[in-house]
Amino acid sequence: MNSRERILARIGQALGRPGDPAPAGIEGHLQSHPRGPRPVLEGDAIARFRERAARMASDVAQANAMTDVPGVIARYLEQQRLPLRAVCWPALTRLDWRAAGIQTEARAARADDLVGITGVFAAIAETGTLMLLSGPDTPATVSLLPETHVAVVEVSRVVATMEDAWDRLRAERGAPPRAVNFVSGPSRTADIEQTVTLGAHGPYRVLIVLVGGA
Amino acid sequence: MRVGLFVTCLVDLMRPSVGFAALELLKAAGCEVVVPQAQTCCGQPGYNSGDRAAARALALKLVGEFEDCDYVVVPSGSCAGMIRVHYPTLFRDEPAALERVRRLSARTYELTDFLVSVARLDAPPGEFHGVVTFHDSCSGLRELGVQRQPRALLARMPDLTLVEMREATTCCGFGGTFAVKYDDISTRMADKKCAHIDASGADAVVACDLGCLLQIEGRLRRRGDHATMVLHVAEVLAGEEGACG
Amino acid sequence: MRLEAVQFRRKAAEALDNERLQRALEKFPSRFVDTRAAALAELGNTEQLRDAAADIRARTLRDLDAWLRRFERAAAARGATVHWAEDADEANRIVTEIARAHGVRKAVKSKSMVTEECGLNEYLERQGLEVIETDLGEYILQLAHEPPSHIVAPVVHKSKEEIAELFEEKHRKPRKDDIAELCREAREELRPHFLGADMGISGANFLIAETGSVLIVTNEGNGRLVTTLPRVHVAVSGIEKVVPTLEDATTLLRLLPRSATGQAITNYVSLLTGTRGAGESEGPEHCHIVLVDAGRSRMLGTELEPMLRCIRCGACMNHCPVYQNIGGHAYGWVYPGPMGAVLTPALAGIEQALDLPNASTFCGACSEVCPVKIPLPDLMRHWRERQTEQRLRPRRERLLLRLWAWTALRPRLYAVVARAVARLLHGLGGSDGLVHRLPGASGWTRGRDLPAPPGLTFHALYRKRRGA
Questions:
Q1: What range(s) does the 4Fe-4S ferredoxin-type domain occupy (chain C) (predicted)?
Q2: Residue of C23, C361, C434 to mutate, interface with B, max B Cβ within 10 Å
């Protein structure tokens, strides 16, 4: 017997059913994937998302339509005295960045990129959280390596809870991609004297541009 | 209503006034009180030290002594919790004994819980002039939900003012044999409790468990505080503080 | 990690005298207790959630073998390789072999308690690998050659001045005194390591059987870097971390960060499934998952099974009045506080940790806050009972207990003894009514007086009154 077999045999023995009978409930539970208790979220999901995202120290800006997004981002970068130069998701190249004065490169991020622009798969109102899926056109490093992360969120992507996001993932993608990243504000640490400091290994700031629904 | 009073071994030995105060309060609430004379200890020291056999023997002894009472009332949250919560687990593999133990466990109450929830004592007979702060004893609080009951009773005393100290529900560091085995940690825990009592400005600290009171008074006095009174809630409610001896 | 739990008493005494540590520990009530309470209060259904969370963990453990098989199948289908380790040594060997097979020279690591159990870093270093801890707290400890003192806030025992000194010495850069500047300096030191590492080693907060995924929560983002940049990702996890579905994990996630740090959610929650996909220019090309038993399966089917529900939030230690006074190092191994008092004897051996399950007042604060409702005092009592059965308690203690029980079962004798002791203690009381020194129980009077009893027992007085 190898370690795998020994461990599994020991577990089966301890549980009082040696051998390998797949208990009946397992496939049923996977099929139905029941939801646990969820908090009651009062009011409008988009307003809740906005409020929660701010509480997690994300900056939130509004754009009326996708075409306005580059302008909104340009203004934010200028306000923050950041360069108008960014790495962005290949999925976002259809926007007219040049008109807003932003120089973009569509690729995965490198260590020296200062600003990264991404979309999202969903945004979760309960906690003000962004949900990003990795993929060839949506590289995960863009939301991770630069000191500033800008996320473009169309209001149609706002869902109430993480459970709603999983359902959307199953419906639209089937299985999860290599990485599903939930992002709630800039990276932070409280390891030194339990004092919260923004900007640990990931971004120092996160701008969320909400598109539509204003 | 025939109530069996289990005074506890600690009260028997260290502070009989608590037992008489409890007796007084139960009578004031209209109960017929019996005090079985063969009672000794609920078995908690053995149980918490890992000696299950000793705990079981003492549990059966206690059950036998109180079986004919409608209720068992205990002026201690930890001893009441022992009987109410832990006795059944001692006999979980013996259906016959378990049934018998359960019947008694279900009728066992911490004193203030009994006075508020069952006997409905409206007017505590004692008098107390001054400011008190209340320390929540761990077992009573977390095993039996004793928190509002003693406060409700104290609130019915016209000349008594209750002020809450910080971290009233944090352990005082007694913990039975813990207090002697790990005396340095235990003393530090008591120190923090004493500081909160001190900061509350109360004339007296009150609790439902004599173990906590010995711990708190022992440390307060060693710290040089000889003024703050350290009282069992029964003593305050019955007006028995300092009496008897 | 070296096991030093047998030195509990000495280390606890040192901790009580360590002023820097005491200052750090003073922050626990406000930083951990109050924030947790506030984060849970806003949910409005904490008890319902705790019940659901406990139920998910308990049910999964009842079919643990089946869920692990299901997880393995799903992970393999996505290109991950699942390894099984009986003990720490085998886990270390597996990781080393993976490193060798992929020509790894440098590994970056995010926080993982099971690898602390295994002593993985030291093992890999002995094999000639460079291993860098990247969680800020763990990085500081690696520089200082110290073990963690808390499972969530590993460096809670250190002041910023100590860290400033350490950075100045190790980084050879001008001393920084501001916490934000210290954090930036660590970030700048660690970035090149992330970029240059061949292998990333992470733990797993949960393994998702449904999707074959590893789920990791972090705040700093180092967990993301470790699992994204290097070409090899190795996740090391205890076998008990498996949960069935994404929804089950979500229920647990509502409680984990709230219980740990009072956050509604951690900054990052990453669900990692398999290897780099077709057309992707990033992400690990190789993914290995090491499932470590190391004593866990032996707990199944015993009284200790509920301990396997633990999700490592640290709430039990944050709320433990003993931990709050002595910190984590006194517990002498990876897991401090109440969960350590139960887990250390289970994983490392009962005789290796005799003090741990005894050094508790059974106040119950731990089980009151445990998100998965582990009855921690009951499980500590379990160990006390095993110690008694195996005659591991000191002879004097056993003798006293036996004498006490024997007497308490004989009411007449007991009454005589009680009266004698009451008289004796009364006599020892001075003019102030206090016993200052108690022969035979000097532990009590070292730091406390004993209010002297009035001299007659309750039962003696009661008989007198009734007779009168």
A1: 300-331, 350-380
A2: C361
With contacts defined as CB-CB under 8 Å, which chain C residues touch B231?
A: none
Give the DSSP letter string of C133-185. Answer: E-SHHHHHHHHHT---SSSSSTTTT--HHHHHHHHHHHH-S----SHHHHHHH
- Domain membership of residue A170 as a residue range: 43-211
Instruction: Establish if C298 touches chain A: CB-CB under 8 angstroms.
Output: yes
Contact by Cβ (8 Å): C404, B46:
yes
Q: Note the pTM of the prediction, 2 decimals.
A: 0.96
Residue A193, chain C, CB below 8 Å: the answer is yes
The count of domains in chain A is 2
Domain boundaries for CATH 3.40.50 within chain B:
2-117, 130-238
List pLDDT tens digits, range C353-409. Answer: 999 999 999 999 999 999 999 999 999 999 999 999 999 999 999 999 999 999 999
Among partner residues C16, C362, C402, which is closest to B185 by beta-carbon distance? C16
CATH of domain B130-238: 3.40.50
The CATH architecture of the domain made up of B2-117 is: 3-Layer(aba) Sandwich (3.40)
Round to whole Å and give the CA distance between B138 and C320. 12
Sequence-ordered alpha helix ranges (H) in B95-208: 95-105, 111-117, 138-144, 148-155, 178-181, 183-200
Q: If you search the block for the tokens 């209001």, which residue do you land on?
A: A155
Retrieve residue B209's tokens.
């468990």
Residue A36 near chain C (CB below 8 Å): yes
Given the cut 0.95, state whether the ipTM is greater than it.
Answer: yes
Rounded CA gap, B189 and B172, in Å? 6
CB contact under 8 A, B50 and C451: no
List the domains of chain C with CATH numbers: 1-41+324-393 (no CATH), 43-294 (3.40.50.10420), 396-467 (no CATH)
Cβ–Cβ contact C52 with A under 8 A:
yes
In chain C, residues with a C-beta closer than 8 Å to the C-beta of A22 are 66, 69-70
List of residues 6+ apart from C396 with CB closer than 8 A: none
